[in-house]
Design brief:
The complex is a heterodimer of chains A (630) and B (465). Chain A is of the alpha/beta class. Chain A is 37% helix and 23% strand. Chain A starts with a helix and ends in a 6-residue tail after the last helix. Among the domains of chain B are: 79 residues; 224 residues, MetI-like (MetI-like fold). In chain B, the strands form 2 sheets. In chain B, strands 1-2-3 form a 3-stranded antiparallel β-sheet. The chains are: A alpha/beta (630), B mainly alpha (465). At the A-B interface, helix 18, strand 16, helix 19 and helix 21 of A face helix 13 and helix 14 of B.
Chain lengths: 630, 465
């Protein structure tokens, strides 16, 4: 494709300064970008007058919550918007070329060659049926015109550059043979193949574990230093931004509300930025008692068009706010918080719980719990090996206590949670719940007993039947456990539950898809509460949510614990979330608990090397907080 | 005196079920939403109108009665033993006018030459005049084209009138309903901007009315689509075949659904030996050639009918039983595809978190299947039923063609093709039976496919909300 190569070459021209507002050395300058999406017959704005610029070799972060339009901005610049999206106005200048005025064939000389992009999910952005080498080779031959031996040499060089341990081997491997972190590295290698001047990284570490996240961030930092390319990071995580970027822009509801240099972390100007920063869970949450009571109205005003609240254009700023605040906040503000706030001094110690006399035994006692999966092979399905997902775990949980299970993906923490509820059949061990060995229970008694342990899942989208209205979802447990209750009383109980989780009772009659992620998670909590459980297993309940919503859900969980004397088994990969909620922490690795202790001790004086590694991988900002205080 | 055959009863039960389903769906928002999407698609609505016309013909053809015998005389009414459907009664003039043998569409002469005795006693080897087709003409060679155009135009006029009356009435009702907003509403319909494509629907109806009017006028005077070997009107046969085709398409689904649903859900949800057993069953069934299975089953059915001769007194009863048997057999051999689909989907659903949450809440398994699994399989069922329909109509034609389909005495497109194939070698070729069957099948299957596509688009969750 010689024409495209030519097109790529001729752009290397020193760029004259365009307008007075843009600095002379701007690599990419976006001015007044406006993008809208078609929804039925209406155009719903997604990006609304965004202007920014990225200098040569600079690292720039566009931060915002889901639906704020940050990814759409990047896709617009590359002109890769989906069918339903349209650029309504504005300009994007790459050097002195107007990207929106170029013909499509010239754009393919820009994409990959001058602007590279890496996406969030490394699995779906690599073609599963082509080897890594082929995919890098494709990019190299297309963008650099390399062939044969030179191509392979360059590909190996790139793989080595992005830190794959054995480039020669990985060159011939398929994506599924690589681990998640290695896949993301391969993706980065492909993006680098065209030696772009600007690399767009769209949530590059969100799908990865903390330790991998730290590695990928280091890699990006090193690559930027070595190649001198500019980096445009798109993320929701200020921790990542603080590690990597020199300039930050905060986006909200399609607009950039604040742009600043490193000074941003010293003291953001816009209240929304401050709230976002404050809502970010931090390791020292309990130390600082950083339960910031930010203005939820402002925070929940994300782009309403993602919420799919059914037809009609909603005014992006005000409408969204009204909708969000009406739906989510009313109930909770009214409900009294009868327990006093934690004093900073009581951090790490057990909190005061409603004492129950006479009961001394712990609520949950797990001894040597095991979940093994057999690996079967051959036509006779002989068991050749077992996967020890949970391999001899023991712990106990007091009434009203919260135990956090922390570990990276694949460590068996979710399997353990589901195994306790018998959603996965355990292979061994003893579980005593409320003084009774639940393994010995059968049939009806077991059905009743097990309902006292409930579970909240990670994904608020797949955890509710899309074909049932919220009222039916919440009362399902009531009907199963107490079939005798009259319909009228059931309805009242459902309305009470919805109020308790901060939703209006009218939500009963609506379908789950009409609610945002945080609201859905509230409904899930109400569903679990309906059967009056003593223990709730929270399986990453906040990791699919935006930070501000995350903070709200954590607070709701905390409130419910105080008011109802609940115990939580809180499963998470995020050490910072743990700090905000847990009394004790157990760190899991490969199916075993490697360290368990009081939250303070585990987070700040870890004894096991693995725990220390995990903690070191947490972005600095999330360890200490914006002001840098210890 | 009305009478019902077994397929009639099942057909009406099916319609009743359909009405119930529509009622059920109209009360649920999550089911109404995709249907609204279907209603906005012009191609789907055109298809729906055409399908409804076919459905109307099939319904008319399913209401049977024994007509009173004329001239029976003495006291109590006497009835003919062979029942007649409403459609037969309505098409009486066309049905009864049987020629001697083949004749081309709109022709006034027979297709085969024969000895014609002249009034003067001499004999001529020539094409004889038809007994009914164009019998009102004195000199067909000269008058026929003009006559056809004149009658056709008259039919068009009547069709237009038949279209105008209800459309005007509807518009008037709309005007009364909306009063001030009527002008805007009317404008949007005429410009094709209304939400539901009323203009397109209206035009489709107009075309159907015009075609109907023309055929209705020409039918009693000519044979619009010619006659077949025994002189029966081909247009009449084609109309009668509509019911056969529709029944095969719908009743078979009736037989397929329970098997596919029960087996698919059980296999997917309970896994283990249940899954193994069901998979074994459908893999075995799938590996036997379908035609062979159907042929064997039809043979068994025929020998059963031979042994119980007195239970099948009339020819029509036998044909009807054979049709029912064919539906059941087709259903028994074609549930595997849907079953496999439902099993796979259930496998996915059972791992979903809302099912797990229900388990944790202590909901009984039966309830989980009924409330969480079944409703979430509904879109798959709907899509596959809509898509299978057209392939079943075509399957009937193929099976009848190789003589293991419906009874040879029953009108069906397959039988029409089967009998026409022998005449393909004639010169000039007898094309009209084949063409008529093709035309009608095409007119049923194409809208069915288009409609199925629209339904799939609307219900497929992957195509986004």
């Amino acid at each position: 494709m010689p024409s495209i190569r030519e097109g790529g070459n001729e752009v290397i021209v020193p760029e004259p300064s365009r307008t007075k507002t843009e600095p002379a050395r701007a690599l990419l300058a976006v001015a007044d970008l406006r993008v809208a999406f078609r929804q039925d017959a209406n155009w719903v704005p997604a990006v609304d007058g965004v202007s920014f610029h990225i200098g040569k070799g600079e690292s720039f972060a566009l931060v915002g919550e889901s639906g704020s339009g940050k990814s759409v901005t990047a896709l617009s610049v590359l002109r890769l918007l989906p069918q339903s999206g349209r650029i309504l106005g504005g300009r994007a200048m790459l050097g002195d070329r107007d990207l929106f005025a170029l013909p499509e064939f010239a754009m393919s000389g820009i994409r990959g060659k001058r602007i590279g992009i890496i996406f969030q999910d490394p699995m779906s952005s690599l073609n599963p049926v082509l080897t890594v080498g082929r995919q890098i080779g494709e990019a190299l031959s297309l963008q650099r015109g390399l062939k044969g031996r030179a191509l392979k040499a360059r590909a190996l060089e790139l793989l080595d550059h992005v830190g794959l341990p054995d480039p020669a081997r990985h060159f011939n491997e398929y994506p599924h043979q690589l681990s998640g972190g290695m896949r993301q590295r391969a993706m980065i290698a492909i993006a680098l193949a065209g030696e772009p001047d600007l690399l767009i990284a769209d949530e590059p570490t969100t799908a990865l574990d903390v330790t991998l996240q730290a590695q990928i961030l280091d890699l990006l930092k090193r690559l930027q230093r070595d190649t001198g390319m500019a980096l445009w990071l798109i993320t929701h995580d200020f921790g990542v931004v603080a590690e990597l970027c020199t300039r930050v822009a905060v986006m909200r509801a399609g607009k950039i509300i604040e742009q600043n240099g490193r000074g941003f972390f010293e003291g953001p100007e816009h209240p929304y930025s401050r709230e976002l920063l404050a809502a970010m869970p931090r390791l020292d949450a309990r130390l600082r008692d950083s339960e910031v009571d930010f203005d939820d109205k402002a925070v929940d005003a994300r782009n309403p068009f993602l919420r799919a609240s059914g037809g009609g254009t909603v005014d992006l700023t005000e409408g969204g706010e009204r909708l969000a605040s009406a739906m989510s906040r009313d109930g909770i503000k009214k409900s009294p918080l009868d327990l006093p706030r934690l004093a900073p001094s009581s951090v790490g110690s057990r909190m005061e719980r409603p004492e129950r006399e006479g009961i001394k035994a712990p609520l949950l006692e797990v001894r040597d719990f095991k979940v093994h999966y057999p690996i079967k092979k051959g036509i006779f399905q002989r068991t050749v090996d077992t996967v020890r997902a949970v391999d001899g775990v023991s712990f106990s949980l007091e009434r009203g206590e919260t135990l956090a299970l922390v570990g990276e993906s694949g460590c068996g923490k979710t399997t353990l949670g589901k195994g306790l509820l018998n959603l996965i059949k355990p292979s061994g061990g003893r579980v005593r719940f409320d003084g009774e060995d639940i393994a010995g229970l059968k049939g009806e008694a077991r059905r009743k007993r097990c309902a006292e342990m409930q579970i909240i899942f990670q994904d608020p989208y797949s955890s509710m039947n899309p074909r049932m209205i919220v009222g039916d979802i919440v009362e399902e447990g009531l009907r199963a456990q107490h079939p005798g209750i009259a319909a009228e009383e059931r309805r009242e109980r459902v309305e009470d539950l919805l109020r308790a989780v901060g939703l209006p009772p009218e939500a009963r009659l609506r379908y789950p898809h009409e609610f945002s992620g945080g609201q859905r998670q509230r409904i899930c909590i109400a569903r679990a509460l309906a059967v009056e459980p003593k223990l709730i297993v929270c399986d990453e309940p906040t990791s699919a949510l935006d930070v501000s919503v995350q903070a709200q859900i954590l607070r709701l969980l905390r409130e419910l614990r105080e008011r109802r004397g609940l115990s939580y088994l809180f499963i998470t990969h995020d050490l910072a979330v743990v700090a905000a909620l847990a009394d004790r922490v157990a760190v899991m690795r490969r199916g075993r608990i490697v360290e368990m202790g009081e939250t303070r001790q585990v987070l700040f004086e870890p004894t096991h090397a693995y725990t220390r590694g995990l903690l070191a991988a947490v972005p600095k900002l999330r360890r200490t907080g914006p002001s840098g205080a210890p | 005196m009305p009478t019902f055959f077994s397929t009639d009863i099942l057909f009406f039960l099916l319609l009743l079920g359909l009405a119930g389903l529509i009622f059920h769906m109209s009360r649920r928002e999550h089911l109404r939403r995709p249907w609204r999407k279907v209603a906005r698609s012009p191609s789907a609505m055109v298809s729906l109108v055409i399908l409804l016309v076919f459905l109307g013909i099939a319904v008319l053809d399913s209401i049977r009665f024994h007509p009173a015998e004329n001239g029976g005389g003495n006291g109590g009414a006497r009835y003919r033993s062979e029942p007649v459907t409403l459609l037969d009664a309505w098409l009486g003039p066309i049905r009864a006018r049987v020629e001697k043998t083949y004749s081309a569409p709109l022709s006034a002469y027979s297709y085969a030459k024969e000895m014609i005795r002249q009034p003067d006693g001499g004999e001529v080897w020539d094409y004889p005049r038809l007994k009914y087709g164009g019998a009102h003409l004195a000199d067909p060679a000269r008058e026929r084209p003009g006559d056809v155009v004149r009658i056709g135009a008259q039919g068009l006029g009547e069709g237009l009138l038949a279209w105008l009356v209800p459309v005007t009435a509807w518009l008037a009702w709309l005007g009364w309903q909306e009063r001030s907003g009527f002008a805007a509403r009317f404008g949007s319909i005429v410009r094709g901007e209304s939400d539901v494509p009323w203009r397109t629907i209206g035009l489709t109806l107009l075309i159907i009315c015009l075609a109907g009017g023309m055929v209705g006028e020409l039918g009693p005077k000519y044979h619009v689509l010619g006659t077949d070997k025994v002189g029966e009107d081909v247009f009449y046969q084609s109309l009668k075949s509509v019911r056969t085709g529709l029944l095969i398409g719908t009743l078979t689904t009736f037989a397929t659904l329970p098997l596919a649903l029960v087996f698919g859900i059980l296999a997917g949800y309970f896994r283990g030996w249940v899954d193994d057993g069901i998979q074994y069953l459908y893999t075995t069934l799938n590996s036997v050639p379908g035609v062979l299975l159907i042929a064997a089953a039809m043979l068994v059915m025929q020998s059963y009918m031979a042994r119980h001769e007195n239970e099948f007194a009339s020819l029509a009863l036998r044909a009807d039983f054979r049709l029912l048997a064919l539906c059941l057999i087709l259903g028994l051999t074609s549930w595997t595809g849907l079953c496999r689909l439902l099993r796979a989907e259930t496998l996915k659903l059972r791992e979903l978190e809302y099912v797990q949450a229900a388990k944790a809440l202590g909901v009984r398994e039966g309830m989980i299947l009924l409330r969480h699994i079944l409703p979430n399989l509904f879109h798959l069922v709907l899509i596959s039923v809509a898509l299978d329909f057209s392939s079943l109509v075509l399957a009937e034609a193929v099976l009848s063609y190789i003589n293991i389909g419906v009874d040879p005495t029953m009108e069906s497109w397959g039988n029409m093709i089967n009998s026409a194939r022998l005449e393909m070698a004639r010169d000039p070729v007898v094309w009209w039976s084949l063409a008529a069957a093709f035309l009608f099948m095409f007119a049923l299957v194409l809208p069915a496919n288009l409609f199925a596509d629209a339904v799939r688009d609307a219900f497929d969750p992957r195509r986004g909300e």
